[in-house]
Amino acid sequence: MLRIREAIVVEGRYDKNTLSQVVDTVILETAGFGVFHNDELLALLRRLAERQGLIILTDSDGAGFLIRNHLKGALPQDRVKHAYIPDIAGKERRKRAPGKEGKLGVEGMSPAVLEEALRRAGATFLGEGASPAAPRSPITKADLYALGLSGGPDAARRRADLLRRLDLPEHMSPNALLPVLNALYDREAFLKEAGTWM
Questions:
Q1: How far apart are CA 126 and CA 52, in angstroms?
Q2: Which of 86, 155, 163, 178 is a Cys-bridge partner for 167, taking CB atoms 3.0 to 4.6 Å apart?
Q3: Is the pTM of this model over 0.70?
Q4: Longest Cα pair distance anywhere in the chain, in angstroms?
Q5: From CA 145, how far away is CA 149, in angstroms rounded?
Q6: Is residue 168 over pLDDT 90?
Q7: Is 168 exposed, middle or buried (0-12, 13-18, 19+ CB in 10 A)?
Q8: Cβ atoms of 139 and 190 closer than 8 Å
């Protein structure tokens, strides 16, 4: 069982059950779209974010991104990290049919995939004793524009190619992609590597 400092928010109880077999931390549910009308839950999420940090881990389908974006606007951005699961076609065992987009949700992910998603988001794993990373130059919106990944002709296609290459969800906007890239890459390494892909 992995212990992490940040609390985690997921969409529903099956996601919570799956994740609780991987990590030991506070895990809260949004009750799907219920979080849109639940001021008490939002207040609790804000408190947890301020106290210990918060990781948002939603499904990679359209509904998951609606919930993620709502939380993103309602919570302190400097205290929230975003974990993303990859797009994997399939259906969870408990369901009779796949979801609308035919993708596995958080509950359908293996423990290894969930751990990797949390590590990529920058979760603080307790007891691993790593020294703090040296400050590094962040990847910026200007970098994404210069690479043709936002704001220009064919940017959506180029970004979709990049998301597939990096095994990230297809619904990520440039604004959602930026913090993920910064969690995964040093700026210089990303620009060098991206230059070979584009």
A1: 12
A2: 86
A3: yes
A4: 48
A5: 6
A6: no
A7: buried
A8: yes
